[in-house]
Amino acid sequence: MQTKPDHRLDWVRSAPFFLVHAVALAGVFWLGWSWSGLLLALGLYAVRMFGVTGAYHRYFSHRSYKTSRPFQLLLALLAMTSVQKGVLWWAAHHRHHHRTSDQPGDTHSVLQDGFWWSHVAWILAPMNHDTDFDKVKDLAKFPELRWLDRYYYVPAIALAVGLYFAGGIWALYWGFFVSTTLLWHGTFTINSLTHVFGSKRYVTSDNSRNNLWLAIITLGEGWHNNHHYYQRSTNQGFFWWEVDVTFYVLKALSWVGLVWDLHTPPPHVRDSNRVTDAAAVAAPAAAPVAVPASLTPAPSLVSLSSNPR
Length: 309
Fold this sequence. Notes:
Distance between the termini: 48 Å
Largest sheet: 2 strands, antiparallel
Structural class: mainly alpha
Mean pLDDT: 90
Order of helices and strands: HHEHHHHHHHHHEHH
Number of helices: 13
Strand content: under 5%
Shape: globular
Strand order of the largest sheet: 1-2
Radius of gyration: 19 Å
């Protein structure tokens, strides 16, 4: 696929991204293999993946539950250790994705622009560097979030420095460089793979799919067709057999009062608007199906009533 003029990458500004990959790949030859190092990498992968899924996505982008202002700040700090830019930047781009999903203008559509763009290149392109504050007015009113969005590298650097002082080069390598590389590509699979591989339970205006394996590596985000059908839901696994670790953690946090008002799909929404055409389910690149206006959960994209108290 020919590169579009506005899809060219900023190679200089993207140098740290590629450097992290290079260190993660080359470091094992220098330091040697370590099973305990791998456990550290996977442990921090899981904690920071929750920052991406439970904070960046389900809270800041969709406001699918409520929390206090102090805990909102903690969620933002945790999410930003994932090294995926600022909290307002992430939410603004994700909200735009939902408004244009798999249509021209989608931020990262594999159907429109191919695997490379949807998986990683979009985040490195100059056209996507800035934060569209008009899309996150509900979040931009908090000065601490605006500060974090401007200095988005601070939480990640703090994590890297903390790992170094806690465990030296070994902890820095496995806990930051290896873990971050795995975390990036785990997160990116939702953009590049869940609109191609999997099953389609609900009629939506895009090609979103449900995928168990991607749900496992992303703590529940793989139930992507569920999510695009009813975006306001805190749980993305709508049924008990759909593994959704992010929701389990949020549920536990609600038991101790740190979050509340977790929104789940009403039974009449969960059980309607099913795909019955087997051909539509099987075709990974099928044209988007129009959703009846009465079933489109557009108002749930951003619930402005979810402001922290």
